[in-house]
Amino acid sequence: MTDSYYGRPILKEPAWKVPDVPAYLFLGGLAGASAAMAAMADATGRASLRRSGRLVAAGAATASVGALVHDLGRPARFLNMLRVFKPTSPLSVGSWILAPFSGLATAAAGSEVTGWLPGVGRLAGIGAGVLGPAMCTYTSVLLADTAVPAWHDSYPELPFVFGGSAMTSAAGVAMLAAAPQDRAPARKIGWIGTAMEVAAGLRMERGHGIVSEPYARSGLLKAGRGLTLLGAGLSVFARRSRIAAAVAGSAYLAGGVCTRFGVFNAGVESSRDPKYVVVPQKLNRQTSKTR
Residue 225, Cβ neighbours under 10 Å: how many? Predict the structure, then answer.
């Protein structure tokens, strides 16, 4: 039932480099959620949360671009992706989200550090915050738009997994860097992100038949879920305990890294085994015949 031509893989394994691309997935989500959190903190007068969010958004966005350029081989290839805007291409749309977001996040962080042009910095921070949710989730669309079975079949859940993971990662930074009196919104964002990530992740591991197997076997995804739940639990005590806040923040960040690497590895594994291509196709054909 799962035979292929001489047992060879039917799909070509993704050529993306490790750790470049999984790191790009994690850093982009962290940057987007941090920028959105910083914009909300600015609107509600939470200075330390705004500062940490802006600085992390700029740093993570820059590192994300660096990881992408390193995977591409040279900067000109990234610039070439900006020559056209194609709404039907997730890669083109993603490039046009990443480039302006990085510029706006860097401008907001520059104003935050130097104190220069606070009005411009605030506008840049708002712009980055508006683009933040798209920055958190567009990479999930990039993966789902491929022929890789585990990524393609999980297109309903991947945006929630990536979005939730981005929210918990940003909450983790806030637990580590923001003042205690400013952490309340970060705790709530972390809990919402945890619920999204865990619920969608479990659905991804159980809801797609044989294609869910690489996710269900992934030790990284299990570790990511455990660390995220640990972060959510300890963040309850973060208001009064620095140690609890530090451990919760570190757990959130480590959980985000594990989740992104786990999703990436599960997709690569599914591309190597012909059964993840052949079995769903045969089942779909049998289902269509019985209708």
Answer: 21
Only one residue has tokens 């890294």, namely 257
Cα–Cα distance for residue pair 49/34, rounded to 1 Å: 9
What is the CB neighbour count within 10 angstroms for residue 154? 29
The mean pLDDT value for 170-183 works out to 95
pTM: 0.94
CA atoms within 13 A on the CB side of 39: 19
User: What amino acid occupies position 130?
Assistant: V
Residue type (1 letter), 235: S
Whether 9 shows a pLDDT value over 90: the answer reads no
- pLDDT band (50, 70, 90) for residue 291: low
User: By the 8 A CB rule, do 262 and 25 touch?
Assistant: no
Q: What is the mean pLDDT of the chain?
A: 94
Rounded Cα gap, residues 283 and 291, in angstroms: 13
Would you say 65 and 98 are in contact if contact means Cβ atoms under 8 Å apart?
yes
